[in-house]
UniProtKB/TrEMBL annotation:
It comes from the Eukaryota. Coiled coil: none annotated. InterPro entries: DNA/RNA_pol_sf (IPR043502), Rev_trsase/Diguanyl_cyclase (IPR043128), RT_dom (IPR000477). This is Reverse transcriptase domain-containing protein. SUPFAM superfamilies: DNA/RNA polymerases (SSF56672). It comes from Mytilus galloprovincialis. Residues 170-295 form the Reverse transcriptase domain.
Length: 502
């Protein structure tokens, strides 16, 4: 038997725990000079502005592995998504509307001539996710971590990732609670308002229907013209673009935004209403010059709520979701929401749980039960990633649980008769299918409890058996099981012997 013990995950969890514990109270780490230089170089060389729109390049890793096309797997997964959406016409309609809207707004484009492309080409699968949101009830998720096989890199593997370059989250939350008048807003579809450099667009290709509203339409190729949400570098590209815009347009408002923007969320506070209203006007103007739209304004100031409502960009909800927390504008409370994961009357038990079958060849758990060398387990694709069909529920193996016909009858003797006369004084009870149990021991216990239940129905309340199964009950249960098996196996012989007795 081989045992693999790995403490790497525990060490990572412990490190993450202490980082969270010291969040906001620990001294900031000194910036890596090389990292700072790399970020500054990206700001200067990879971000340009044209016609009030910023254009960015993907931050490719140095010596990145060769990126495969992923064309086959992307097409298969897209076809699978279409089959799933066919079962929910409303979901399919919304999905198609998003694709159509993105094309009309210039976020994506169709690729008509694929043969003349000289740039890197890569296809990205995608799927829908329902979201508890008023503004975006459903969104499309693009899987930039999809691999053609275990040894093949994904798009995210080839792109550089950087730490957050904007203000620390803790500092933003502290400033949000600092002054009397608080305000929140978010940038509408922030990633989709930053154009992607033409040379990088072909690595963001994906398949969808030529007519997004027709399930029978043929698949064609689309590609992104903007930064897509799904790549690990997308938050950095957004932050870098905003930082460049704020630096190129210095003002009190740009400084305020640079200090209080977290990804696409704005949170800050002011001492007086005049400063608050001034920020509302100037921040909208400043970001509109970069092609962004600030929406979903919320504040504990009635004046700002009225102005935002008049401009049709306000949010009238009393409870506002901000960065994983909930802010009550009326009571000015900031708290975490306690989620009731499951109603008490809907607790999952073994009786009502959904069971499915996993073939042995596709079951990674079987490697441990059979025994395997640790070095083989570490490099095993099935163990690391699971079976290929697990990604799509429609491809799961089907298993029909069969309830066998209850043809087996067992006999139970009355207390007034001894064990030898079991067959003389009998009553039939529902069958006990011993094939359902993995061990004889469990079959004996189940049978004993069934026999006790029958006997307790006959006895008065004061004579009923309770507690653990006794030795006598176990012996009787075993005898009943033996007799049952004999009656099934030697049915013809028993009938013949009984006829001779008669």
């Amino acid at each position: 038997m081989n045992i693999l013990v790995c403490h790497k995950q525990e060490e990572c969890d412990l490190e993450k725990f202490w980082k969270l514990e010291s969040l906001g109270i620990d001294a900031k780490e000194q910036n890596d000079p090389d990292l700072a230089e790399s970020i500054e170089n990206y700001l200067q060389t990879s971000i340009t502005k044209k016609n009030d729109k910023y254009i960015t390049k993907l931050p490719w890793r140095e010596n990145a592995p060769e990126l495969p096309t992923n064309e086959d797997i992307a097409k298969r997964r897209t076809e699978s998504v279409i089959r799933r959406l066919k079962k929910d016409p409303e979901m399919f309609r919304k999905y198609g509307e998003i694709i159509t809207d993105q094309e009309q707004r210039g976020f994506i484009e169709k690729v008509y001539d694929e043969s003349t492309c000289t740039n890197k080409v890569h296809y990205i699968p995608h799927h829908p996710v329902k979201k508890d949101s008023v503004t975006t009830p459903i969104r499309i998720v693009y899987n930039c971590s999809c691999r053609a096989n275990d040894s093949s890199p994904c798009l995210n593997d080839c792109l550089a990732t950087y730490p957050p370059i904007m203000t620390d989250l803790t500092e933003i939350l502290v400033r949000f609670r600092m002054y009397k008048y608080a305000v929140t807003a978010d940038i509408e579809k922030a990633f989709l308002h930053i154009e992607l450099d033409v040379d990088d667009r072909d690595v963001t290709r994906f398949y969808w229907l030529e007519n997004p509203m027709d399930t029978e339409s043929r698949l064609i190729t689309y590609r992104f013209k903007v930064v897509l949400f799904g790549a690990t570098c997308s938050p950095f590209m957004l932050s870098a673009t905003l930082m460049k815009h704020f630096r190129d347009n210095p003002s009190t408002t740009s400084t305020e935004l640079q200090r209080n923007v977290y990804v696409d969320n704005v949170l800050t506070s002011f001492t007086d209403k005049q400063s608050l209203l001034k920020f509302y006007t100037e921040s909208r103007k400043l970001l509109s010059e970069a092609g962004f739209n600030l929406r979903s304004w919320n504040s504990n100031s009635t004046e700002l709520q009225n102005v935002a409502g008049r401009d049709k960009i306000g949010d009238n909800d009393d409870i506002v979701k901000i960065l994983g927390m909930r802010w009550d504008r009326e009571s000015d409370d900031l708290k975490f929401q306690q989620i009731e994961f499951m109603e008490k009357d809907k607790m999952i038990t073994k009786q009502n749980a959904e069971w499915n079958y996993c073939p042995t060849d596709d079951n990674p758990a079987d490697y441990l039960t059979r025994g395997i060398y640790a070095k083989h387990l570490y490099n095993n694709s099935l163990w690391m990633n699971g079976p290929q069909w697990i990604l799509n529920r429609e491809n799961w193996p089907t298993w029909t649980r069969k309830i066998e016909d209850c043809s087996t009858m067992v006999t139970v003797s009355d207390d007034n008769t001894d064990d030898e006369s079991t067959n003389a004084s009998t009553q039939t009870i529902s069958c006990i299918d011993i094939q359902r149990y993995r061990s004889l021991e469990k079959a004996i216990r189940v049978t004993a409890y069934v026999l006790r239940f029958i006997q307790n129905l006959r006895n008065s309340k004061d004579k009923r058996s309770i507690g653990f199964i006794s030795v006598e009950e176990r012996c009787k249960a075993l005898k009943v099981l033996i007799v049952t098996v004999q009656q099934e196996t030697f049915k013809d012989e028993i009938e013949s012997l009984n006829s001779l007795k008669a």
